[in-house]
Amino acid sequence: MSSCGHSTIFSFLPPTLPFLKENFPTLIPDSNIDRMLLRCRLCDLIDTQAAADMAEACPAGLEPESDIEKQISELKQAITEGVKMDAENELPILQKKLDDATYATDQRILAAWKIYWAVWGPGDGPGREDEEDYGEDIEIEFPLQREDKSEFAPVEDIKIDIEIETPHEEEVKPVVAKVDRPAKPSVKKPATKPARKSVKKSVKRGKK
Predict the structure, then answer these.
(1) Which residue has the higher pLDDT, 132 or 59?
(2) CB under 8 Å to 128, separation ≥6 — which residues?
(3) d(C-alpha 158, C-alpha 166), whole Å
(4) Where are the alpha helices (DSSP H) in the chain?
């Protein structure tokens, strides 16, 4: 159990600064933390998610996205029913207003996650606008918290992965034996002495 109360399975060494700079050149890493000390990643993830949830809420003084969406829906219905004939010009204005509000919300959420990425690197949370394209995702995963140890994946599942990646010794031996000791061709040796036939000689003896 770590000092934060979470299991030690959530404690990791953060990625090194050279690793982050090489793999994520557009990311600004946090150089103020000690990356040689174990750190609870679950704590950072919980704090970041809470900050992102707060960022998603509309700040005071701004019109919520839900209100703008409602105005757009009502305006479309009025245009369809013919109630407002001159309202078609209002629709693009409201749509632009909604797009701006959505973009501002996304920026607030990204700002909350950048603090987490500066420690652990990308992988969790939303996608970044300046995300590097390497053809495949680079993720640092950690197991979900479970109090009951019996709920963890069975041991045999882990054994399967190990057997696939690293063959057992007994699986390698037959291959090595075939290479080092090739089978000798079978040669049939001729018999050293020819087989003798039994021949009966008929001997006729004369009378004395």
Answers:
(1) 59
(2) 26, 27, 110, 117, 122
(3) 12
(4) 17-23, 41-56, 65-81, 90-120, 155-165, 169-180
Q: What is the DSSP letter of 8?
A: G
pTM here is 0.55
- The predicted pLDDT at position 130 comes to 57
Tokens standing for 192?
A: 């050293």
β-partners of residue 159 are none
Please state, in angstroms and rounded to a whole number, the distance separating the CA atoms of residues 41 and 111. 18
How many CB atoms neighbour CB 69 within 10 A? 14
3-state SS class at 11: strand
- Tokens 């996650």: give the residue: 113
pLDDT of 62? 85
How far lies 171's CA from each of 115, 174, 175, 179, in Å? 48, 7, 8, 14
Secondary structure class of 38 (helix, strand, coil) = coil
Task: Write out pLDDT tens, residues 168-192.
Answer: 444 444 444 444 444 544 545 444 4
